[in-house]
Amino acid sequence: MVELQTHPIDTVFHALSDGTRRRMLRELAQGERTVSQLAEPHEMSLAAASKHIKVLESAGLIRREIQGRTHLCRLEPGPLATAHEWLTFYERFWTDRLDILERLLREEDAQKNARDQTQKNPLKFPASQKSETETGEDQ
Amino acid sequence: MVELQTHPIDTVFHALSDGTRRRMLRELAQGERTVSQLAEPHEMSLAAASKHIKVLESAGLIRREIQGRTHLCRLEPGPLATAHEWLTFYERFWTDRLDILERLLREEDAQKNARDQTQKNPLKFPASQKSETETGEDQ
DNA sequence: AAAATATTCAACCGATCGGTTGACAATAAA
DNA sequence: TTTATTGTCAACCGATCGGTTGAATATTTT
């Protein structure tokens, strides 16, 4: 007993820091899954997968319902919402830049309109490329 | 060289899984800080704090500018935005419930209005308590 | 030049992590 | 009742983690 105070969000972020576990969550986003169903796509022993599931469970990210000899797992969104909200605190740091860019473009636009007053329809804001997002793939 | 493919977001979530590092990020949200300024509030050696900062740095969460013998650190919001967006995928799982609640309340409301047609101003949606958020404190 | 300051580096330590294997327990099917 | 099937548990392993200490490096101050 040496650990004094482990914030719950520690456990959540730690659980999310592993690709195998993130893929399991993605799978559970599709619906309920048994332990072996969750384990199947991952090339590791069932015991190893079972450990990952236990990590997710103790982080509160999933819950399991034991039905006979199978364990049905389902996603538990609460902790994900908490983590999401924690990150939201920093939202201004990445939206601020876009705001600045947007303002600059607006000013540019305004100048253009001032120069060319016959132009009636203002340009749409160009496809806001959120560069490094890198969604999709697997996890 | 045994590690094949460590997804960048692994490193980000891992960096966020430690309270000391999260507090450092919070501090950096206030503005630039030197290594010793970041270390000061935490009761550990400077070397230990330095390691934490290096973890944040290699996750891309901060950048440092070396000015003479001091290192100035600043927040780098990109990876936070990425993590935030990763979590956004699951947003429907925690908003769905609220949607259901909201719909139920609307129906209730509609019934009430149907019963009492003289009533003109509809009830505001009650203080949406997002229970387990637990903001503030330190990290 | 000498001393103080800011920070990293290297070696070490115990704890935890992610994986393995083999045994075990419980349920379902033959 | 035997035999599969589903899943956990316990012990072990090497790697990584979070911390320490002492020395090294680079810069600034005196």
Structural description of this entry:
Two copies of one chain form a homodimer. With 139 residues, chain A is mainly alpha-helical. Chain A has a domain at 8-78: Arc Repressor Mutant, subunit A (Orthogonal Bundle), CATH 1.10.10.10. In chain A, 53% of the residues lie in helices and 10% in strands. The first copy, chain A, contains six helices and three strands. In chain A, strands 1-3-2 form a three-stranded antiparallel β-sheet. In chain A, α1 packs antiparallel against α4 (46-58). In chain A, 22% of the residues are buried. Chains A and B meet through α1, α2, α5 and α6 of A and α1, α2, α5 and α6 of B. Chain B binds a DNA duplex (30 and 30 nucleotides) through α4.
Secondary structure layout plus pairing:
Two copies of one chain form a homodimer.
Chain A: H1 8-16, H2 19-28, E1 33-34, H3 35-39, H4 46-58, E2 62-67, E3 70-75, H5 78-88, H6 91-115
Helix pairs in contact in A: 1-4
Chain B binds a DNA duplex (30 and 30 nucleotides) through helix 4.
